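Two records follow; treat each independently.
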Amino acid sequence: MEKNYNVCTGCGMLCDDIEVESEKNIVKKVYTACRVGVAHMKEGRENAVYQVDNKPVDEATAISEAAAILKNAKNPLIFGLGTSTNETQKLAIELARKTSATLDDTSSFCLGSVVEALLQNKFKACTLDDVRNKADVTIFWGADPSNSHPRHLSKYSYFPRGTEKQRGWEEDRTAIAIDVRKSHTAKICGNNFFQVPPGGDAEFIDALIAGLSGKLPKTSYNFPPKRILELANILKGAKFGVVFVGLGLVYSLENLEPLFRLMDALNAKANFHLIPMVGHCNMRGFNENLFEETGYVNSVKFEDGAVKHGPEHSIVEALKAKTVDAALIIGSDPLSSLPRSIAKNLLEIPVISMDPCETFTSRSSKVYINTAISGVESGGIATRMDGVKVEFKPVVETKRLSDEAVLKKIMEAL
């Protein structure tokens, strides 16, 4: 019997095998999804909420007020979009051009540099389907998918029976965790867990490169050379290896140069690929769409037909320097996620918040538009953590507008 499967937009994996039961336009039961996905798919609400100064208004008033804020601003900030569709992200880029805005997303302080390097072909890439079917050695570096992406190991990276890995984790696959603590993923990796101190990843990389070259590996924190040599031997034997890069590794390195050297060293001895452990369902989509338009993945400023790029155009630096005078926040909550010393500067400018959920940012916004959840209440296309585009349809109907519909209305009002 044919089944209708849905796509879960709860994380960057975009699992496409989800079954749901709904009643009176409300999701009642979710099958196959992980705990993150189940909670995400059940978030929907039917009624729309529009607020100005925390007071209920109609749709037209909220759109008009939002357009007025952007029109009167000399340097507005547009931020977020990690949970919006590719179609919405392209509209946001167009809106940023139209309003001479600063445009950024969470990748400027997480995995953006890794995605940018992939788009510049500085790393060898592969898909999650390749991992499931071919990978014999996987490294989770500074990542704990057992908690951040709960189906990652079971659907793709360790437990599944792939077309070329029919004997699965018992005989065909080796999983390795490198982290500052013994995470749930590290426990699954057993003896293949390598604990490094905070900030020690660059040194560990140097030692591992030495081990791959047959030299005696050394670290200032006295990691046993024998263990690094054992790891190097496992990696040398990989027929299809994958490094899953998490925030832990990115935050530990001053730049990606050590990672470039490691991947070159690995590919001199074996066959290794890299995938960033993207959290938001479409952060990679934003990076790719902006890269296609500007050559950059985040932190840009549109001005007089030109595009400027640099850390000063990231949300962190722009708020710190108080160079933006209004903000449109889409599907993000910077008042919760950024340091208070920086985020508090948002309270000094008019903010428009578009979000399916009520957040600290939405409560403090001049205008709040309660939008539909992408993948649950609205359809479109998103880009998976490995760069594969995934199309999805809404699971239930809602009176709430999608991010795309709201942006279209704001642009018309402008």
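The next record belongs to a different protein.
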Amino acid sequence: MQQFLINEFGQSLGNKIYDIQQKKLQTILELTTGKSNNQMITLNKTILPRIALYKVLKEELGEQKKAYDTVEKYMLTIVGPKLNKQYSMLKFIPGFFYMFRKIMLNVISKSDNWVTEVIKNDSISVKYNITKCLWYDACVENNCPELCKIFCDVDHVIYGSMKKIKFIRTGTLGTGNNCCDFCFLNRNKINGI
């Protein structure tokens, strides 16, 4: 994040924003209550640093759109591609889709970051709906519900360019829907390979 901010705003302002963001993050963490240990790890590592950055950028730049656009750029050009690369490395494993859906279902079923309903799980597709989401809740609790859309959009960066999977989603909690619907299709099966 620090290097991204330096690239965006120059050495002096980039470092200043990063230092303020780190302090803001600590304040937000101290005010966060009622979360499990697992949720606090996710909040600390993944969600609240971006919320703190957004809040600091709004204060420092004095413009919500510029703050939003900057966080969006960071998430879609730095964070999303990094996660995409991690998942894409699995594509060389025989039985990739089987492994992918096992990993996804293991993650969502063993974490209290979401409330999830599995709709379908077979060799062609894995579909599930998320009706409660820590990312959405954290954005709402920190008075920036509009920021959740960026977290949702990162999923398209992570999964959208994967060669062996087709990712489909029609709505998210962060965009005003009553759930986040995830659908991953096995391209080998739907293309008849």
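Discussion point: The chain has a mean pLDDT of 93. How would you locate this feature using only the token line?
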